[in-house]
Amino acid sequence: MWRSVDHVSSIALFLRSHSGLQWIHAAGNLPRRSSEIQPVLTKSELVDRICRILTLERFDALFKLPFDFSDEILDAVLVRLRLNPYACLGFFRTAMKQQRFRPSAKSYCKIVHILAQGRMFDDARDCLNDLTLGSSTSDRSVSFIFNEMLSVYKDFSFSLKSFDMLLKSYAKNGFLKEALFVFDNMGWHGWKPSLRSCNSMLNCLVKTGEHRTAIMAYDQMIRAGILPDVFTISIVVNAFCKDGRVDKAAEFMASMKRKGFEVNLVAHHTLIDGYCSIGQTKQALGVLSSLKSEGFSSNIVTNTLLIKVHCKDGKVEEAEKVLKGMRDVPGFKVDATVYGILINAYCELGKMEDAIRMKDEMLSSGLVPNTTIYNVFINGYCKNGQIEEAELLIGEMEVGDPKPDSYSYNTLLNAYCTDGRMDKAFELCNLMLQKNIGVTVLTYNTLLKGFCRIDAIGDALHLWSLMLKSGVVPNENSFSILLDGFFKTGNFNRALKLWNDMLYRGYAKSLITFNIMINGLCKLGRVGEAEDIIQKMKDRECLPDIYTYRTLLDGFCKSGEMDKAFEIKNTMQKLGFLPSIEMFNSIITGLFRSKRCDKVNEILAEMHTNKLTPNIVTYGALISGWCEEGLIDKSFDYYFEMIEKGLRPNLLICSTLVSYLYMQGKMDEANVLLYNLVDFDISTDYEHYQRDSNHDLGHSDAYQAAKIFREGSNEKLQPNYFICNVFIAGMCNSGRIEEAKRFISCLSNRGFFPDNFTYSTLIHGHSAQGQVDEAFFLRDEMLKKGLIPCIVTYNALINGLCKSGNMDRAVRLFSKLPEKGLAPNVITFNTLIDGHCKAGNLTEAFKFKQKMVENGISPNVITYSTLINGFCRQGDMETSIKLLNQMIESGLDPNYVTYCTIVHGYLRTGDMTQVSKLYEEMHIRGLLQNDNEKGTLCSGKPVLSSEDKPSVLKVSECVVAC
Fold first, then answer.
1. Closest Cα partner for 657 from 678, 638, 679, 681?
2. Which one-letter DSSP state was computed for residue 893?
3. Residues in contact with 20: Cβ distance below 8 Å, sequence separation at least 6, in sequence order
4. Digit-coded pLDDT (tens) for 425-462
5. Alpha carbons 404 and 426: distance in angstroms, whole number
6. Are 840 and 874 in contact (CB under 8 A)?
7. Which residues are CB-neighbours of 725 under 8 A, at least 6 positions away?
8. Torsion angle of the four alpha carbons 820, 823, 824, 825, in this order, in degrees rounded to the nearest 10
9. pTM metric for this prediction
10. Dihedrals phi, psi of 950, to nearest 5 degrees
11. Which residues form a coiled coil (predicted)?
12. CA–CA separation, 770 vs 772, rounded Å?
């Protein structure tokens, strides 16, 4: 006992000196006080003497020892003095101060164990922080440290506290993989981490977005027998909510209550906020209303959440009432956050005046709006189309306080890009650079999206190069924007190359990226490949959503693969996705496209069962579909039903009806219908046109069109391009090309300039009549005007060359399509196959069918029917039947024309047995309605061939392709 006071004071003195011990030489080694020759000590003797000096606290004697620090000496001293943590720490810190020596990871593991055993936890944590922060080096990897800690534990037979502290150190320093490694290995050795360390790890996982990992770690805790406390429960509830699984959070909370665990107010607040974030305000209010019955008193956070719920529900007036109530409660201090929620709600609703009123009320309460609230206003103005107001607000911030931040500028930048004002966007970028506001990957992504939105893919690629040169690393969103841009502008090869690059670099992770790719492949007609991506998503733990499946279903519908579409529909139902009107609209379109219109009524009945009301798109699909089937009266039935239900027909519906009325030569009916569409007056232009023209137009279609335009409105508005093009398409499809040209001339003085659609229509009209030179002249005129012909235009040119018998030139033009950045579609291939069949060159026709497949384009009913017709003409019925069977095996249903072609082939050979057999097949497939049709077939009268049908350029085809 006589040494206790001196011992404490000596040790304290020794430890205080660790920041600058007098006996640490400036050069980094212990000084040698005497110039006399020192006796050479063995390692064992040196360690003995050091330990003796440290134990006896004769620190001055340490100056006289001639030695250099090494791992060997340090470790030997630590092992020898492991029960004397103060002496060990003093010697370890002396070692740390040496210039030419640093303690190894092994030494750190020893001192951590020694200090933890001596309950010197703060010092142990400091040493652990030094150790774990250097974990990037090979000798400080988590596996090395854990194994070394384990080795020391076995040698010293100390407590497990060090492992628990190691877990917490990794977690707090953000090394979550390392923390999980320690957590897993402690469990493997049968050791339980402390609840506090587990909570620390779970909390850090949630904060860094590793929500699912946190939930799995919690499950592992429970299996290890570690019981949760109120903090654990709050963290897990937060993890479920942040992961979007709010219902799971509610279930978890309820189960904890049933098991008798305490669930605090924080957990309830987290659940309320979770419901609010996914728009389930009813459930959020339910939790709020249950708080009182569970013994909780409302605080400022509770009321703030109530305001947030009301705002999310659009009941901002109710939220204001809560705010007034809060101000009346003593002790409730309303802060800027509460006002910010209300201001944001009004901005979201576009009620900027109310938002300003709330800001004024906030100022009168003595609160100053912060940058976040100013940014809410900037965002509100931009969303409301008031970009000038947003500019003024940023100007005010620049000369006052608070100053605009990166979010302020990026919000305005996004508004410029959305509005197509790319010049202004770049001006703002320059201003940001001048003000040292970082141009981040978010800024570049906004600009990329702006360029892609206006189809300026070249500018987007140039910007991409600038981004890389400036050292900004693109993220997954950057790649996704560019991928979407490539698909939208028809750069399919570049899109596919970029996709493969993304997969290689690991940039394909998010649902948005996968959905863009699936949508792009579906538009390209490669629906099978799009379906394969679903598995890639699942492999990367990225679950498809309703949009993924709906896009895929729409792709199968557009390609006519209705069996696959119905498979996707069944999968959606099994996964619990509610049927949507968009899904049924796609199915209806697909049924018409695949000539299975007999199923349309069943789908309409299913829609009714699911309490889904047909919308304008539904009626558009029905009207267009029945027009395609030649049942225009049925189309008009739906047209009038739509009007009776209060739905106003859009341009596409009316143009479809007008187009088919023109095709049938019902010009008067078409003109009557157009009275519903006209909203401009071109009387002046028509009079000018009439004076300059020598033609008698009194009863021409152009005259009737101009008359409708003149009488339809007293306002002198610019001609509607869509309607004008509908007129032009109608005239060209009915063979009145010259009249269509005169009509264009009549409109030109009113600012109507022919666009891609107009030229495609005229080119198609000339090509259909075999006027190939005129068609190519118009193509060249397009190019001179800066209009880029699309695949529809080149399909028309190829069709004209085929019809004029110039197959060599048609094939040469086809081979140049990739150079023009265009991908041939099913129409391109079918046109060339038809041309070769008509020329009697069936070998070449087959080669193009093979090329279709190589290009990822599935042959359709028209492809097979054309080839069958070619072989039937040459009397090769065996090959025709093989093609028919191949067609059925590939999932395509032969139509009336397909069977009729083969029937007439057998009639020419006199094989009535085969004719009878084919008739039975047609009857089974529902292609014959009565015996009169059988008589017509057997009479030998030719069926309506593709040559006899009017050559029609569909409005919808041009709208999509151009």
1. 638
2. P
3. none
4. 999 999 998 988 888 999 999 999 999 998 889 999 99
5. 18
6. yes
7. 755, 757, 758, 761, 955, 958
8. -140
9. 0.58
10. -65, 140
11. none
12. 6
